[in-house]
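Would you mind giving me a polypeptide sequence along with per-residue C-alpha cells?
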Amino acid sequence: MNFFRDRDANSDVFDDPKNDPTAASPSTSPRKKQKFDIGPPGNSTLDTADDDAALASLRKRMAGPSSAKAGLAKDQDEINKIIYEVSKGSKFFENERKKDAQTTERINALLARRDQKLLQVPPGSNEWLSIERKIEDLATRLENSRDLSRTILHTDIDMFYAAVELARDPSLKGKCFGVGSGVLVTASYEARKYGARSGMATFVAKALCPHLIVVKNDMQSYVEASQKVMAVFEQYDENLAKASLDEAYLDITEYIEQHGGTIDQIVQQLRDQVRSETQLTVSVGIAPNTMLAKISSDRNKPDGQFRVQPDRKAIVDFMRDLPCRKIPGIGRVNERILESLGVSTCGEIWNKRVELWLALDGKIEWLIKAHLGIGNTVVEPSKREERKSVGREHTFNPTADTQALLDLLKESAQRVEQDLERLDFKGKTITLVAKKDNYQRFSRARTSTRLVHRAEELYDITSSLLLQEIEREGALSLRLIGVRVTHLVDLRGAAAGEERLRKLFQTRQSNGEAQGEEAAQVRPRKTAHEWQQEEERQLALAIKQSLEGNGDPFQEVHDLSQDDATTQVREASPTIALALSKSDEAGPSAPLPSSNAAAQCPICIKPIQGSNDQLNAHIDACLNQSQLDPPSRASPQPPPSHRADSASAPKKKRGPLDSFVRRSNK
C-alpha cells in the first residue's frame, strides 16, 4: 500500500502559511520570523526538509499519547501513516495540526534562546565550567538522598477493561476487540498488534484493524472488579496508593519482614492470588522507588514481573538506554522538546546537561533525577486535601442543539452533586467545560459567594455560562460538555473540628461532674438535723465573740462544714462549744467545765444553768420580754457597786450581736 503525503497530492498546501505547521505565528514580529528561518529564501531543498520534518512530527503526534503502551505493533511509523491518512481532512486532524504547529513554534523559540546563551557561554569557558560544577553539586545532593531500603511495587492489571469484558463474554478470547463508545478505553492484545489502543477514535481503530469488535463499556462492572483486586493488594499493604481503577503502588517492605520469603516469591504469590480470586492477571514492577516500579511494570507484560535491583550501578545502567518518553510525566510534547535539544534517552541527559541548563533556565533537577533513577519512596493513600476538583463530563456525537446540550449539562450537574455528597465536599467555583466539534476545548467559570453542591445550583450557573457563550459566539457545535467544581471545602474536616470541640466540652463537663462527685464524697450533704446543729453552733460562737467584744464573729470561721474532730464536738452542743472556747483560752491543761456549769445570758446578763435547750428558751424569753416592754420604761439600773465597777473597768468593745439586741429592744 502506498501512502502519499498531502503535499504530494497538492504541492501548494505548505506554501500557504495557514497550513504550514512550521510557519511563524501571525503575531510574531518580522525580526523573530527571520530568526526562525533555517536557510535563505528560495532554498527549496531546505524547505522540503522542513516540510518532511513537520510532517513526521505531525504523524507522530497523531499517534496519540498511548502510542508507547505495551503490546503495540513494532512498526509504529507504518501505523502513524495510516492514522494520518484516515484522519486527514477531519476537524480532529486540523486541531492536531494546529497544536503541533504551536509546539514547533515553542521549540524554535527555545532553541533560539539556547543559541543566544551559547554565544555568551561557549563550551570550555569559565561560565561553562561553573555551570558544570553547579550541576555536579546538584547530582551529588540528589545522590545523597537516594534511598534503596524500600521494596515498592507498581501493579497494572492487564488490559483491564477488556479483561473484564472477556470474563463476562469468553467468546471474545483470541479476537481483536476494543472497549468504548466513540473512543476506545482499551483494546485487546490481539487488536494492539494492528495499532489499536486506548484513546483512539473508533473509526481510526477500525481503519487499522478492519475486523475489530467494539464492545460498549460498563463502568459499574469495572468498579466492582477493581475493588476485588484492590482488596487483594490491601492484604500486602493496607496503605497502598491507588493510581486508577487498574493501577496501584504498594510498599511491601514491612510485609516481607513479617512474613519472610524472597521478594520475587512474594510478588509471585500476589499475582497468583489475584488470578485465583478475580480471574484477572496483573503485571508488577519491583524497584526501590515509584518511578522505577512504574517503568518496570511495562517490561514483562502481560502477566509478568520485572525487578530493578536496589543497587546504584544497576539503576544507572537500567536508565542509560531508556527512552525519555518512558519516564512518567514526559509526554509527546516534552519528548519533542527534548529531542530538539539532542536528548532521546536518559543517558543523553548527562551528556547535554549544560545545554539543557541554558535552554531551560537551570530548571533541570527533574531531568537529573530521571538520569540517576531517583524517585519517590513514600507510598501512601492520596490525601483528601490534595483533591482540587470534582467534575463530570459527557462525550457524544457533535451537536448544536441547545436543548440537548442543556439536558446533558443537567445530567452532569446531577452526577456532580452525587459525587460531592459521597465525598463530603462543597465548592465555590463552578466551571463549564466543553469541547467543540473541532476538538478545541474551552471552559468558563464563575465563583459563588457561598458554598455550592446542589445540582440545581450547579445547573443554573453552568447553563447561564453556556447561554452567554452561545449569545456571544453564535451557535456552538459541541462534542463534550461537563461540570466541574473547584475551590473545595472538606466537610469531613469541618465535621472533625466540630467533633473535637464537642468532645472538649464533654470532657470538661465530665471533669467538673467528677470533681463535684469527689467533693460530694469528701463532704456529704448535711441532713436537716445537722443543719440545725450547725446553726446552733454558729449562734453559740457569735454569743461567745460578742461577749468578748470581737468585731466580726464569723471572720475566723473559714469553712463551717469541715468535719474535724473539734468541730464534731462543737456541733454536739453550743454549750460545750462555748466551754471548749473557754478552755482554749485557759490553755491545754484547763479542766473542761461540767455539763451543769452556768452560762451567762447575753440579754439580761444573768447566769443560766441547765441544758442547751434551757439556755435557748431563756434567751427567747428575754428577747420577747424586751419587745413587750414599753419604750418609755427605763432600763433597770444596776446596783451602785456594779456601776462603779463598770466605770472603773475599760469600755467593752461591742459586737454584732449587741447591735442585734439593741435593734430588738427598740
Observations:
- The chain has four domains: 6-120, 152-310, 390-494, 528-632+651-665.
- Confidence is low (pLDDT under 50) at residues 1-42, 550-596, 630-650.
- The domain at 152-310 is CATH 3.30.70.270 (Alpha-Beta Plaits).
